[in-house]
Amino acid sequence: METQPKNYIYSVFFLVVLVVIILIGLKIADEGIEGELFSYAKKVFSQEQEQEQYFPVVEDQPFPPPGSAGGGNTDTFSNDDNLLGIVRFTDYSPNANGLHSFLGKLCNIETLNRPIRIAFFGDSFIEGDILSGDLRRLFQENMGGKGVGMMPITSQVNGFRKTVVHQFSAWDTHSFNNCSDKSKLGIAGYEYTPNRNAWVYYQGVNKDHLDSCNRVSVFYTLEDNDTRIFYKKNKGTSVYAQLPKADKVSRVNIDGSCGNIQISFPQLNGLHVYGVSLEDTAGVILDNYSIRSFSGAGLKNLSKLSQFNDLLQYDLIILGYGLNVMEPKRTEYESYKAEMIQMINHLKSSFPSANFLLISVPDRSYKENGNYETMPGVSAMIKSQEDICEKTGIVFWNLFEAMGGRNSMPLFVDSTPPKANKDYTHLTFAGGEYLGNLLYETFIHEKDVYKKRHLQTVVK
Fold first, then answer.
1. What angle do CA 124, 198, 307 make, to 5 degrees?
2. What does the pLDDT look like over 312-333, one tens digit per residue?
3. Which of 61, 178, 183, 210 has the maximal Cβ count within 10 Å?
């Protein structure tokens, strides 16, 4: 006797009806006429979706390559990156490894047996240690280190800066503005010669990692015979340190915990001082090299950079320029681009072991029809800066996008507390803290991605 095939028509019909009922229920819930069960289920489902998007899996490379989502131009950041609240770096290096050396050192900082050192070159946008000071703070809070790093001997903003107390007397200051032979200038773009009774004083501030340091280093050249400097550390008695004759840039270290120090220099024609570093022997050191009204291109004329690198061993060079070249409606920057490419190539040869990161100009506003709007020249400058990175094979970070993009500067000015000044160009300390946090989080995100990839490679 043959078995009759089962009839599934009624089963399919009831299944379809059930699905329709569920869809109607979800529709009702979506329109707000929902019970607690529907509401809770939707909330959990939504959170699970967000969590899946919030932690993107990046298998192949820590940076989006140029031309893909998240890289190549200022408007193509991936959805995952936007959900992260991070504007990721764009890597224009030939093998998409433009920050691998630096990120690897961050991952292994505890076994590095030396501090990681960062140089942050910029214009008045980072003057007074704005932004750079918060980036340093976050690195040192999480990875160790003390002190503000390299300090000038004299300064226009010593009373404005919040990360160190700085006083000085009886110095001649030579800079890009008043020195015809730029090769005499040091890494910061300055050179100082002492007059009679010249001295400089530094004191830590009441903040973690900035109240003291473990090493004070004086950087100099000396054409004549050996001489001495005298210093008082922690308000103690006067002690001398020997300065040997040095045709190349040299350093003299004063080791031991130091909360404040006053250093006196002899008046010698052949003594040239380039700065004093307040630092640690471990963790992270970040040096702020800001020059007001500076385009950045002039760094190509500094011939002593490799001598400084022999002493400082930089791991990362950050460049933040362009504000002083922009004009409200200027959209052509070819000559500036050529100068910056030449400058970066000079820096790359001077700091051969360092990785390089160029930060774009921020949003900048001008008044048009009674309203503050983004200068048309901003987008043209950012495009030029990306071209510079592509030509030199370095990494790019779009600060303009990190701020919020077009017309974000007025929001910074009008925020409470204000994150930018009423010149609609420069940050306040609050703005520096905000963007310093964003830049640090981007570094940490890329470090974690690099670490994940490195560990995966080891397992394989």
1. 60
2. 999 999 999 999 999 988 999 9
3. 210
Residue appearing with tokens 């920057």: 333
Q: What is the CATH number of domain 148-281?
A: 2.60.120.260
Q: Are strands 116-122 and 316-320 parallel, antiparallel or unpaired?
A: parallel
Separation of alpha carbons 274 and 287, rounded Å: 13
Instruction: Give me the residue spans of the domains in the chain.
Output: 58-145+284-460, 148-281
CB 378 within 8 A of CB 64: no
pLDDT in tens, 205-257: 999 999 999 999 999 999 989 999 999 999 999 999 999 999 999 999 999 99
Q: Nearest to residue 421, comparing CAs of 364, 348, 359?
A: 364
Give the model's pLDDT for residue 56.
28
The superfamily in CATH containing domain 58-145+284-460 is SGNH hydrolase (3.40.50.1110)
Ordered DSSP codes for 385-452: HHHHHHHHT-EEE-HHHHHTSTT-HHHHHHSSS-SB-TTSSSB-HHHHHHHHHHHHHHHHHHHHHHHH
Q: For 362-400, what is each residue's pLDDT tens digit? A: 999 999 889 999 999 999 999 999 999 999 999 999 999
Q: Provide the token pair at 152.
A: 């000038």
Classify strands 90-91 and 260-265 as parallel, antiparallel or unpaired.
Answer: unpaired
Nearest by Cα to 273 from 261, 263, 282: 263
Q: Which residues of the chain have pLDDT under 70?
A: 1-85, 455-460
Q: State how far the Cα of 381 lies from the Cα of 375, in Å rounded to an integer.
A: 10
Q: Which residues pair with 141 in a beta bridge?
A: none
Within a 13 Å sphere around the CA of 147, how many CA atoms are in the beta-carbon half?
Answer: 30
pTM over 0.85: no
